[in-house]
Amino acid sequence: MPAGTLLYAQSGGVTAVINATAAAVVETARKRKVKVLAARNGILGALREELIDTSKEPASAIRALAHTPGGAFGSCRFKLKSLDEDRARYERLIDVFRAHQVRWFLYNGGNDSADTAWKVSQLAGEFGYPLTCIGVPKTIDNDLAVTDSCPGFGSAAKYTAVSVREAALDVAAMADTSTKVFVYEAMGRHAGWLAAAAGLAGQSPDQAPQVILFPERAYDEAAFLAKVDAVVARVGWCVVVASEGIRDAGGRFVADAGGGKDAFGHTQLGGVAPYLAGRVKDALGLKVHWTVPDYLQRSARHIASMTDFEQAWAVGRKAVEFALADRNATMPVIVRTSQAPYRWKIEAAPLSKVANHEKKMPPGFIRRDGYGITAAARRYLEPLVRGEAYPPYGRDGLPKYVSLRNAAVEQLLPPYEV
Question: Which whole-number Å values give the CA distances from 297 to 139, 184, 294, 418, in the listed order?
């Protein structure tokens, strides 16, 4: 039995399958006779010494966790600064780890979480504290460097493509006397992966979505309105999918909500769909409906991709294996080994190559006119949404999800204000 405790934490926006990763971490560690603690609400729980004893959860609850959306232990949007600027907080983390004999730290999140895990590994080395830090990938934005895809993206992509295809049938049915243009807003601050996934809903330029707006291309309002007008004239209706992060030629977010910032210091976005709908209505005189699926696109476990589920589980299992093998400051990443048939494997990548890097849509994935995806993008995306990982359903017709006990561990240190 390895000496020490493993601490797992979830960070940032949760996904439909992040709990599958958590379940894989706990189950794999249990098989190796390693105790697993979880931090309540991500790194904040570690700083506050608010820890959860996962050994109090029965095996059946951990199994059910794999098909339950949300973040079972709580997540947070809280970014630690540099080692020099936030040294007291980093030292507090080491104090908490030492008090609870934490020898392995797994941080499940995106770019900022990878950066945190990397910095904690550096400080532990400076202090001579025996700690192995593993970043575990997760994000529906699919913007982590090195990894071919990010757990959480495939399910959000599937939800997006399905929703756009179904909504398009509704719009087409009503277009003669009602809505002519439907605008769907997809998450994606700087990278248009999720908006691109909507392109799977149609096979030709006249099939929905006829217009996709990517953050990688500057938003040109005149060209956009002309495109929508032409599609409606030709097809009779138009579905627009816009990434929340589209910018104008000057670099300003189209959906900049007053310049506010979130807890990570990112511009707080939201509202590009109603903006675009308003411009279409005012400039073209067409009846428009719009939607902002927001949390729905990342919490839709009822339509999760089987590929995504399997990859979320695999990175959790490998994260534990890498940790126990003392592969410090690494992240389990997905490597595509074959396109047809689609095959993949998990390898280790240095956190230094993941932290603070952002993977955007390749130019070759965006159609030449800027309003759709290419065949290359379709080949990349299609395997990620394949298969259905349905949760079990109860007699009431609703999915059966689990709520963990989340039994608190006794605090051993003085209270700490973050």
Answer: 12, 11, 6, 31
